[in-house]
Predict the 3D structure of the following.
Amino acid sequence: MSASQILASTIAGSWYPGDPVRLKAMIDSFLAPCPVPEKPYNVIVVPHAGYPYSGPTAGYAYAAIDRENIRRVILLAPSHRYGIRDLAVVPMSDAVSTPLGTIPLDTAMRDALLGNAMFRGDDGVHRLEHSTQIQYPFLQHRLGDFRLLPVIVGTLSSRAADALAAALKPHLADDVLLVVSSDFIHYGRDFDYEPFPQDTEEKTRALNLDAADAIRLGDTARFERIVDESGATICGREPIRAALRMLPDRCSGRVLHYATSSDESRDFSRFVCYCSIGFHAEYPPAPVRNGDDAEADPEGLSSGDKSFLLDLARRAIQYAIDTRMIPTAEALGVNPDELSPALRKNMGAFVTLSLRQNHRLRGCIGEIQPFRPLWKAVLGRAVDAAFRDPRFLPLTAQEFTDVEIEISALTPAVPVGGWRDIVIGRHGMTLSKNGRSAVFLPQVAPEQGWGIKETLTHLSMKAGLPPDAWREGASFTVFEAIVFHE
């Protein structure tokens, strides 16, 4: 990667130490006194002043994030140098850097978002912006291996805030950390904000914590009302407004720490306030594609097509039980010329058999590559799942009465650059290494409640490899599935 593709830190040595050893030691000192919650946070609101001022407050949030499962970070931050209205600006470089090293940018997410009129690419807006850069060393020290997408916004109308939230929300998942960068009230003459000539510290604190409580409760209307009525100079107001629109329903957080830049000097004629807030957001798994979704299959698997395939699989297995022979299309009364284009399209497919009584897997075999028509893939793999899955004895006639059939019609598998590009709940995946390979369908990880690292550990073992084989030297492909069952 050339230097021109990396946005280097412009605040190292001033806002935080430029020496990596001193920088790590400072961050560790911020993290050390902070408690860790039972459920780690994946949405945080953190300040962005120089580390000696806001670092201790930020430490409370960063100490509590989900270090094990997070592999992508979306950072929402305000613009301090450029007047931006109703736009979200992302960097066009490939990475950013700090004294702790380089962070790769999530270029796939960025490129997808740039197809939305709400987004614009501009390295210049990011090059000198401290509200994003101040977060990078904390993220590096806590997460290590991850991809980042920093998003800078200016003033947002309600419609633009809705549009920004709608664009980013589909990218939120259990392996994504949402960071909202914001200081709270800036008090003093040069900030044009001096509403409390008496009891300045106490009244400012009360107003800050009132706003923080609205954020904690996910109450967008209350937060906006507090800021509008008080004129509170919360510089990250716009990122906060957008983030609150992205939180799942009934998601409440916790105010973790509050401080000001004048806590030591006790000069409250001019000061900036800092607050950290954490949320444990539980996102629904990314939807497995449905056969009625035109985006999933351009030909469109109709409900009639799905019913036909499920019936075909059941009749194929029943025929094999009754005759001990492999069924043909003629034997099952199938005329390929009369089938829909979607059924005749070459697609990979898996057929999964489960026992209804206890939901126990009873067989699952499929083919990933689309080398024959979908109906043929289902017919053949239904019989294979019933009688040729090496993990099970052949299916008996008695068991077959208790079997439920599920079919996964697959989009073509494509290679990805690494495991960080796999999206749990959306992607099926194959892992290959040292001549061994294994596959999981998209629904496996959500059904088991696994995060990405746990999923890949099980996938490595399924391939007959050591549990951590996925970390180095493995190659991956991903695919999506149109899943339907009886």
Remarks:
- Confidence is low (pLDDT under 50) at residues 287-299.
- Residues 303-323 form the longest helix (21 residues).
- The CA atoms of residues 460 and 467 lie 5 Å apart.
- The chain is about 30% helix and 20% strand.
